[in-house]
Amino acid sequence: MRSRKVLLVIAFLITWTYITYYILLRSSNPELSKSQFKSLARFLPHAQNENIKSEKLARNLIEFLKVRYLEDQDVPTTGTTPKISIIAAEISDEVADVAEKVTPARIPTQTHLANGEPVIPILVFACNRVSVKDCLENLVRYRPSLKQFPIIVSQDCGDEATKSVIQQFGKQVTLIEQPDQSDIKVPPNEKKFKGYYKISRHYGWALNTTFRVGFDFVVIVEDDLNVAPDFFEYFLGTHKLLKKDPSLWCISAWNDNGKANVVDTSQPELLYRTDFFPGLGWMLTKDLWAELSVKWPKSFWDDWIRHPAQRKERACIRPEISRTRTFGKIGVSNGMFFDKYLKYIKLSTDFVEFTKINMSYLLKENYDSTFLRRVYIYPLVTYDELRRNLIAIKGPVRIQYNTRDQYKRLTRMLGLMDDLKSGVPRTGYHGIVSFFYNGRRVHLAPNANWKGYELSWS
After folding, report:
1. Ordered strands of the 433-437 beta sheet
2. Long-range CB contacts (< 8 A, 24+ apart) of 75-82?
3. Each residue of 168-206: pLDDT tens digit?
4. φ/ψ (deg, to 5) at 231
5. pTM metric for this prediction
6. Residue 35 to residue 360: CA distance in whole angstroms
7. What distances in angstroms separate CA 294 from CA 93, 189, 279, 339, one per listed residue?
8. Which residues of 433-452 are buried (b: 16+ CB within 10 A; e: fewer)?
């Protein structure tokens, strides 16, 4: 019904333009007075120009409607991954007047500083939380350079109160608005998950819009995150790893098991590799987005990205102590895990000069030859011995698990997150989950003959 209305409006505009153009031509005859002819001659080029614009606009809108409405008639009900719809972004240059009404600000176009360092935009996803103010104040406070770290806030939902809060930051941030506010067709059995469909659509549009400027890296932040004082320094010190090591595909500021009682607060500089995609403040490259965007899912993008078909055995970097902390209990996930885990995550208060640290130990060949080898040399202990502090020797130890149920039971007793995604435990690397307990480093690890992750464990 909506598409018919839009087509009728387009048809009326085109017809009106042609009639006007025709009348002007018919009126341009020898019987007109000289002054009338001159007046019409002045309007004729304008009428021709408007006619060309109308035709061009009509073509673009018709193409948009074809993709928007014809593709939506075929909503998959299985696990297939449809292509993302990016028509709105593609036609924005063609309909500049319309685009300016939707996106009044322009994304900064400088992609590198004079010294060759990359400009790394911070892409903040917002919707209808006025508390985005806390997130933006935090980012602006710790940002070392407006030029190197432009803050781009992408807003969905069209909530005016939230938009007003974002605009209060003036030139400190750039606001862009997701133009497609149409309803999303959702399979009947997934209607309660419609919010996840909207989030996925928003992510796809915003990342396409930002990366097409030419940036090499983008850092994604949700509107309910606060960041640590060295948040920007963290990404400055680690971004080169993504270019140097093809076995890495993201840098995350988040530790899923980052509660204060299971991290070593004396080592804020400590970083790990992890097979689990953490999210919650993370960096990706334009090459990775080029790979993912062509098959971007219609919903549940974070679980989708953790699937082996997307991960391809690549890892992320994550910190011992989180550089982000969520304050968003209310959202589409209805506070899942918040009261039990998320509100206890420790946010680092130290400033570590990551740019002055040699990060080569995190490269796969170096990390695997040291970390993995050491873990299986550490003494094997039981949970009871660890809990009761009955271990005579000092230093790191290892607790072994062999089954999914055993893993879940141990993590619950240790106060760690017990869920697995695509068979991968949170913070796990080769199945090993590292944490701090009773003053010592502990590695919860599978046996030394580990063969890989099992999807059936999820």
Report:
1. 397-400, 440-445, 433-437
2. 75/185, 75/186, 75/187, 75/298, 76/187, 76/298, 77/187, 77/189, 81/295, 81/296, 81/297, 81/298, 81/304, 82/297, 82/298
3. 999 999 999 999 999 999 999 999 999 999 999 999 999
4. -55, -50
5. 0.77
6. 80
7. 21, 26, 20, 36
8. bbbbbeebbbbbbbeeeeee
362-409 tens-digit pLDDT: 999 999 999 999 999 999 999 999 999 999 999 999 999 999 999 999
302 is catalytic: yes
In this structure, what DSSP letter does residue 320 have? S
Residues 6+ apart with CB under 8 A from 389: 438
Domain 89-359, architecture per CATH = Alpha-Beta Complex (3.90)
- Please, what CATH class does the domain formed by 364-457 belong to? alpha beta
Parallel, antiparallel, or unpaired: how do β-strands 424-425 and 248-252 relate? Answer: unpaired
Q: How far apart are CA 54 and CA 60, in angstroms?
A: 10
Q: Which of 274, 250, 258 is nearest to 433 (CA)?
A: 274
Catalytic entry in 264, 287, 302, 303 = 302
- CA 269/CA 12 separation, integer angstroms: 64
Q: How far apart are CA 198 and CA 200, in angstroms?
A: 5
Tell me what pLDDT residue 65 has. Answer: 44
Residue written as token pair 């602006």: 140
Token look-up 């094997």 returns: 380
Pick out the chain residues at pLDDT < 70: 1-105, 328-337
- DSSP tag of 85: P
